[in-house]
Structure formats: C-alpha cells, structure tokens
From TrEMBL:
Belongs to the cytochrome P450 family. One of its GO terms (molecular function) is cholest-4-en-3-one 26-monooxygenase activity. Keywords: Heme, Iron, Metal-binding, Monooxygenase, Oxidoreductase. Its cofactor is heme. This is Cytochrome P450. The keyword Oxidoreductase applies. InterPro entries: Cyt_P450, Cyt_P450_B, Cyt_P450_CS, Cyt_P450_sf. It comes from Gordonia amarae.
Amino acid sequence: MTSTASQSIANPVKYDPYDLVLNADPYPAFSAIREEQPLYYNADHDFYALSRYADVNAALVDFKTFSSARGAIIELIKANIPIPPGVVIFEDPPIHDIHRKLLSRMFTPKKVLGLEDQIREYCAACLDPLVGTGNFDFVKDLGSQMPMKVIGMLLGIPEEDQSIIRDFANDQMRTEDGKPMKAAEEGMTTADNFEAYIDWRAEHPSDDIMTELLNVEFKDEEGVVRRLRREELLTYLNVVAGAGAETTTRLIGWAGKVLAEHPDQRRELAQDPSLIPNAIEELLRFEPPAPHVARYVTRDVEYYGQTVPEGSVMLLLLAAANRDSREFPDGDSFDIHRNIKAHLTFSAGRHLCLGMALARLEGRIALEEILKRFPEWEVDLANAALSPTSTVRGWDTLPATF
C-alpha cells in the first residue's frame, strides 16, 4: 500500500482523485468531507471541492463563475492547454450552445426510442452464447460490447473497427496511481482514425450522425453561416464515441456488483421488470460513472466563510452530492423504490448530458435481458478489476457466476 493510501485511510477527511486505493471506495471520504469540510481544500494538488447537493447543483448551473472552457478535469485546467474546437463538455456559452444545438438533433426522443429493438438484439447476441456456461463478465461480455455497437451504428463506424475507437477513448482517460492524465502534458488529441470514415462517408452518404454532421449548416459565434471544419468534426466524433459508450459500460458493471450485494431487490426486479427504470436511476445515483467534474473559477466566491480566489480549480463531487442525506434520505443505502427527484450523475444546467436518454434506454434493456437469462448471480471480486482512471469510476472486468 502506498504512503498516500495509508494517509487517506488514517485521515478520512481527505480526497485525492489520483489515489487508486482511496477511489476503490471513496464514500467514507466523501461523507467526512461533506459533513466536516463542505468547502474542502486539497493542498497537495491545489484544488477546492464542493460536496453538498445544493452547492454542487448550484455550481453546475452557474457557468459564469464555474467555467468549463479550460476543461472539466483538474490537470487539464491547470495545464491551460488549447482545447480543440468541438469538445462540447469543455466549452462555455455562446460557443457551447451552438455546438450543443448541432449535437442535440442526434439524440431526439424519437431517434433514441427507435433504437430499442436494435439495442435488444445486441444484448441478446452478447448474452445468449453464455446461457448454460455458468459464467458471465458484466463488462467484458456486455458492458464494453453493446454500448459501442450502438454508438458505432449511430456514427456509421464499421463494426470491425469499433473496438479501436473504444480503446482509444479508454486510453485517453487512464492514469497511473498518483499521476495525472497524459493529456495534461501531451495535449488533447483528436481521433485521427476517424479521418478515413469521414472521407468515405462524404462520398457515400447514409442515415447516420456522420453524414448529418458533414452536411449540417449553422451560424457560428462570429455570425458566419458555414459547415463544420474538419478538426471540429473529428473532435465531435471523438467526444460522441467516447461519451456514448463510457457511461453505459460503467452503469452495467455497477449493476452487476450492486445487485449482487442486494439479492432481495434483484429478485424483485426479476419478478417485476416494471421496477427496472427506477432501479436504473437509483444505480446512477448510488454509483455514478463519473464521480466528479472540475471547473475553473472566474471570480472570487465565498463558501462557508471562506474565499475561493479567482483562478482556482473547483472539483464538484457529484458522487458525494448524490448521497447527501439532505436531498436523499439515508443516501448511503441502495433502494430501487426510492423516489428520486434529480440526481447529478448527468450534471445540470447547460451541460446536462445530451445522451442521458440513450444511456437510460441501454441500461434498462441491458438489465431486462440479463435478468431474463440470469436472475441470480454472485460476483467474483477477487478476479475483478477497477479501471485505473481519475476521471471516471467503474470496472474493467467484473466476472460473475450463476
């Protein structure tokens, strides 16, 4: 165990996003921070953090004070590196609103609901070969497969190349224990492996997102009516491909672990699938795939009698806010019957996740199809592996037996 990890355990009023041991179970630290230091400061990495639901929700909405324009990850903000045009989650209005409007046409309710049969087919293709084997890995066998097939279909990426795109997105977020993302030193890269798809689709248009983005015209922040530049299009595709697969992959992994730990509630879901949509919301609240987001502080701001100076980095602890008993009574308990008004897993305000309807649909169908085939399972935590990343939290592999 590293000395950093030892200190974290000895002093729970500490949160270090780069400490892999602490991040295996950050909730004791989140609880201590939320109750004892609602404005938390980490001197080692020089960032502030908010953890109470009301504070985090208000900060997410206040984009003028808490800016996304330098990125939403601590080390990217500190590095102050150029952000490629089109990284919507790393933008402020007005450019954010222009880019978001372009992307929003891909995730209309009609388009998302029209994917249900295809998503169910993808799940069946992943799960049916496992029936009778006695073994199932929630991530390797389904979580890392189905969401990428869906987003690949939407983007028009050939199935044989989808794993390359997925692995590229994953590699961008991986970190070593105690170290920040490589992008902070090397800069953000665009997925150049989309180049060939863009060229091919330009000559062979189809009913997919890539064709739509190639041809859409819009008025930019300078008032010029134009199409997306090539670098913007590359970034768009990179963002959609990565984000489109990441959340559902993590959600499916956490569903496997959390429901194994709550077998009575799992049996209720198997017996009454109408409970599954609310169970998905509770899973998203209880184990959010992204435990936090960062913001650049544009002006001095006061919290709990202390000043957070302009130029600081503020970490918004979504996972801590999601368990705040002020908003969610007995927040550390998992309850598929909980009345959830609004968790913060999909953010809030201008950056409310565009793909949340798709993630919810994929999560619901995945859980329905899993429970049809495997109503009971035990997870093999001894052979499971958490992803080594400071930005998202979930499983690289989560084997189970049934």
